[in-house]
Design brief:
By secondary structure, the protein is α+β, with helices and mostly antiparallel strands. The chain has a domain of about 70 residues. The protein contains seven helices and two strands; from the N terminus they run H-H-H-H-E-E-H-H-H. A two-stranded antiparallel ribbon has the order 1-2. Helix 2 packs across helix 3, helix 3 packs across helix 4 and helix 4 packs across helix 5. It is flat, with a radius of gyration of 28 Å. The model has no long low-confidence stretch (mean pLDDT about 85).
């Protein structure tokens, strides 16, 4: 593989890791290099450092986007309930008597879905109506009103 293609692939991978919200250590692990090698690459190749910084700046936006889409489509979540035997003197749990895991399905949120669609496909989902779409003809007696 050509060095330039390899560097571009590395830059892409670093930016993707940063967009996921990974720190330098986790990003280095993800691309199978040591943190020392990662730091060295960031020093020697400004494009790698810039890609990491760019990805980090996009991370909150990507996370918010993913959360909105998750809420819009609905999701499943597990909740853990437990009953503990508590020491009356110290207030600390002695042992767990019952433990159950309940799987709940969260219904899709219509408002989140509409928000998503209005922003992703405004030409189809905008509430604003374009007056040019309608061709109305009035009768003679309706024109006087």
């Amino acid at each position: 593989m050509e060095p330039e293609k390899l560097i571009n692939a590395l830059i892409f991978a670093v930016e993707q890791c940063a967009e996921l919200g990974l720190d330098k250590k986790a990003a280095a692990e993800k691309i199978n290099i040591s943190i020392a090698e990662f730091e060295q690459l960031m020093e020697e190749l400004p494009r790698v450092r810039e890609a990491f910084e760019k990805g980090r700046s996009l991370a909150p936006e990507k996370q918010a986007e993913a959360a909105l889409l998750k809420r819009a489509l609905g999701f499943k979540q597990k909740e853990i309930y437990s009953e503990d035997l508590i020491d009356k003197k110290t207030g600390e749990p002695i042992e767990t008597l019952k433990r159950r895991v309940v799987s709940k399905e969260i219904a899709p949120d219509v408002r989140a879905l509409l928000f998503w669609l209005k922003n992703r496909c405004p030409e189809r989902w905008s509430e604003k109506q374009n007056g040019d779409d309608y061709d109305l003809e009035l009768d003679e007696d309706e024109k006087d009103l």
